[in-house]
Amino acid sequence: MNPETVAQLSQPSSFDVLQVMEHTLVTMLGNLPSENFNVLITTNRENLGNLLVTAMMNGYFLRNAEQLMTFEKSLQAADAYSED
Asked: What is the sign of the dihedral through the CA atoms of 24, 66, 48 and 53?
């Protein structure tokens, strides 16, 4: 895929999904405030790969949930319109 497509697919269209994803990553990495601590995370290649896969799977799940919610809202709006 070209970089523009990857960038578009990587950005959630909902602020709520972005917040959930940020919270998930912070939970996976730890939550020390960087202004008070000099945080350094070390790992090996395999564990970093596992972290990436987990983050990607969470992202796909959240994106699918977001699309399903949008679809359901569209159906509800269509039903409301057809009832009028």
From this structure: positive
